[in-house]
């Protein structure tokens, strides 16, 4: 199997709990909290482990919350390459109201990225990445991180014979795709809402989403695009094909972690030599498995493998 390195520059210590009802101005008595290591790349590594694969998680960590994330990842058997930073790694909170079943997610911005950390990041990536590696860069970018960092990471991957899979959003994604030069991103994952923000209009069906994916591939900045339409399924686009993976029907418990589970499953399948189409089909099954788990938990590997056979794939014109 090809080695996988996930990269999380703005991780979070995820705290999840429940309360009877969300009411303003009152003390809300909560259940005992669950702590999980979080952030896009971290969750991709955790999903890969649940699916029977192996990866190394490169994570920017600082302070007591950073130490807790490292401890939790080690307990899950995930190898860590820590980027030690000043400050305190952020926390995020998910609270479920029992009376309605609604989930409230409070996401903190994370500490400022110090300028000297960029050189450390590039040095660590150069040391660890070699031919055939898959580098999964996922999650929000920390405040103060130069937007060009994502493009430089893509250049480093290609210089060392590796491929880079990217999952981010907002200004960081727009700036990365708007760069005039540099290596393309080998795979870009986003959901339909993020695609709509990038395109400037909403997408409500697979066909127009695939057309937008073709535009991205045609720009030369991206080689493959994976775009999720929630419970409906996932669109995959490359230079040679466009298709829609219909999500299997499952009971929704929590949508948290579905995108990260999808990305982890796609990365693992590609690392195992599977085709792009087969990888996205497996990722769609992993995302469906993830939404059946509560709070910040990710996909169940056994369920994800069973659901693959229920994922129907349709070619898009």
Give the key terms.
317 residues; alpha/beta; UDP-N-acetylmuramoyl-L-alanine:D-glutamate ligase; 10-stranded mixed sheet; 4-stranded mixed sheet; globular
Give an overview of the whole structure.
By secondary structure, this protein is α/β, with parallel strands linked by helices. It has one domain: Ribokinase (UDP-N-acetylmuramoyl-L-alanine:D-glutamate ligase, 3-Layer(aba) Sandwich), CATH 3.40.1190. 36% of the residues lie in helices and 24% in strands. The protein has ten helices and 14 strands. It has helices spanning 40-50, 63-75, 115-128, 149-159, 170-177, 192-199, 206-218, 258-271, 276-290, 301-307; strands at residues 4-8, 12-19, 34-38, 56-61, 79-84, 90-97, 103-107, 134-138, 163-167, 187-191, 225-228, 233-237, 242-246, 312-315. The strands form two sheets. It has a ten-stranded mixed β-sheet with strand order 5-4-1-8-9-10-11-12-13-14, with helices on both faces. A hairpin with a 5-residue loop joins strand 6 and strand 7 (103-107). Helix 1 crosses helix 8 (258-271) and helix 3 (115-128) packs parallel to helix 4. The protein is globular and about 55 Å long. The relative contact order is 0.14. The model has no long low-confidence stretch (mean pLDDT 95).
- Do you know the CATH architecture? 3-Layer(aba) Sandwich
Query: Got a strand count?
Result: 14
Classify the fold: give the CATH topology: UDP-N-acetylmuramoyl-L-alanine:D-glutamate ligase
Sketch the major β-sheet.
10 strands, mixed
Q: Any low-confidence stretches, pLDDT <50, length ≥5?
A: none
- Spatial extent as radius of gyration: 19 Å
Distance N terminus to C terminus?
33 Å
């Amino acid at each position: 199997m090809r080695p996988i390195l996930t990269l999380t520059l703005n991780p979070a210590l995820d705290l999840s709990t429940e309360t009877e009802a969300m009411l303003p101005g009152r003390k809300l008595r909560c259940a005992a909290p669950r702590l999980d290591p979080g952030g896009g790349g971290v969750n991709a590594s955790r999903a890969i482990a649940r699916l029977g694969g192996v990866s190394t998680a490169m994570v920017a960590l600082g302070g007591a919350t950073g130490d807790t994330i490292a401890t939790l990842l080690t307990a899950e058997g995930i190898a860590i390459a820590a980027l030690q930073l000043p400050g305190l790694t952020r926390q995020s909170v998910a609270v479920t109201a029992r009376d309605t079943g609604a989930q409230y997610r409070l996401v903190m911005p994370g500490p400022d990225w110090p300028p000297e950390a960029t050189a450390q990041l590039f040095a660590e990536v150069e040391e660890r990445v070699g031919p055939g590696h898959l580098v999964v860069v996922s999650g929000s970018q920390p405040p103060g991180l130069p937007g060009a960092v994502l493009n430089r990471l893509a250049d480093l991957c290609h210089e060392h014979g590796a491929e880079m899979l990217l999952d981010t959003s907002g200004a960081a994604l727009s700036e990365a795709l708007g760069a005039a030069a540099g290596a393309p991103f080998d795979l870009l994952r986003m959901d339909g809402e993020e695609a709509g923000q990038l395109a400037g209009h909403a997408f409500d069906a697979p066909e127009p989403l695939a057309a937008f994916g073709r535009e991205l591939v045609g720009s030369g900045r991206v080689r493959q695009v994976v775009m999720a339409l929630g419970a409906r399924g996932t669109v995959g686009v490359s230079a040679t094909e466009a298709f829609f993976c219909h999500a299997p029907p499952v009971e929704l418990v929590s949508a948290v972690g579905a995108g990260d589970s999808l990305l982890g499953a796609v990365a693992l399948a590609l690392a195992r030599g599977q085709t792009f189409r087969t990888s996205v089909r497996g990722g769609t099954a992993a995302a469906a498995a993830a939404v059946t788990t509560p709070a910040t938990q990710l996909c169940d590997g056994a369920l994800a493998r069973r659901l693959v056979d229920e994922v129907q794939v349709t070619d898009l014109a």
